[in-house]
TrEMBL record:
InterPro entries: F-box-like_dom_sf, LRR_dom_sf
PANTHER family for the chain: F-BOX AND LEUCINE-RICH REPEAT PROTEIN 6 (PTHR38926:SF5), F-BOX DOMAIN CONTAINING PROTEIN, EXPRESSED (PTHR38926)
Protein name: F-box/LRR-repeat protein
The organism of origin for this protein: Vitis vinifera
């Protein structure tokens, strides 16, 4: 039985919801084991997932995305170590994953009226106290940027974080530096990383893996990282804007086992306009 739990804990969430429980009674029983729900990687196609969930579980009445995500989080019984939230994740569901005070409940359909959802605000981050890996998509970061840093501070076991175009990276990193003592991996994609944010990165004492692929970062900021992050084992700065690779950077990065530099440019010229990185549309033309 332990072997089956180990195997089912590796399958995708939609299979664990819509296929595994219907194989046989023993598989259904195993699918309820919280160990199978330690990796909460939500699908990114809202309508398809919601429609299938309602068909399989025969939900009646309006379906709440919040209650769907919350019910999945509850299945982990606070054992979840990886959480990849979809773009359609609501503020209430995000906060619910951070709340450690709520008791556990079996998966069930619960329609939550809007007023009740507001009353339950701030009920999500400590719900996954064992969380080690977190990924937040761009749309969710845009909508809920104000609450992200405080929720991050509740995931004290967090080790790795992936963000897409965060608007308050410095504040997030400050919370990580204060509360997440085992943190070692950061991925920031398609964003702008300025000197103050680089200083926050350098202040992370145990940073080993840093992925800044496709970001705008100035050369002086990159030098700060190379000189200040002495424990780096991987640095990915491919396809960045703001600097060009040269021998000096290679020498500064000689202590890094995996240094990925290709494709970076000082700037981009397009149709006689200067093109610099912009966090909203990808590029801004002057």
């Amino acid at each position: 039985m332990d072997c089956l739990v180990n195997v089912l804990g590796r399958v995708e969430m939609d299979s664990l919801l819509f296929a595994v429980p219907y194989v046989c009674k023993s598989w259904y029983k195993v699918s309820l084991d919280p160990v199978c729900w330690k990796r909460l990687v939500f699908p990114h196609f809202e309508q398809m997932v919601m429609k299938r969930f309602m068909e399989v579980y025969q939900s009646i009445g309006p379906f709440s995305v919040t209650s769907f995500i919350n019910s999945i989080v509850r299945r982990s019984n606070r054992l979840a170590t990886a959480l990849v939230l979809p773009d359609y994740c609501t503020k209430e569901a995000l906060e619910y994953a951070a709340d450690e005070e709520l008791g556990s409940h079996p998966l069930m359909y619960v329609w939550t009226p809007w007023k009740e959802r507001n009353r339950r605000s701030f009920e999500d981050a400590e719900r996954c106290p064992a969380l080690k890996v977190l990924e937040l998509p761009n749309d969710l970061l845009k909508r809920e940027s104000a609450i992200i840093p405080e929720l991050i501070s509740k995931w004290r076991n967090l080790e790795q974080l992936r963000l897409e175009r965060p608007s308050n990276l410095e504040e997030i990193l400050h919370q990580i530096s204060c509360h997440c003592k085992n943190f070692f991996g950061l991925s920031v994609i398609d964003s702008e990383v300025w000197e103050n944010e680089v200083s926050a990165i350098v202040s992370l004492p145990n940073i080993k893996y840093l992925i800044l692929r496709g970001t705008f970062i100035e050369r002086k900021s990159l030098v700060m990282i190379l000189q200040g992050c002495n424990k780096l084992e991987l640095l990915d700065i491919r396809d960045c804007i703001g600097f060009e690779g040269d021998d000096e950077l290679l020498n500064l990065a000689s202590h890094i086992n995996a240094f990925k530099l290709g494709g970076s440019k000082l700037s981009i010229w397009h149709d006689e306009y200067y093109c610099s990185y912009d966090s909203d549309c990808g590029y801004d033309y002057y």
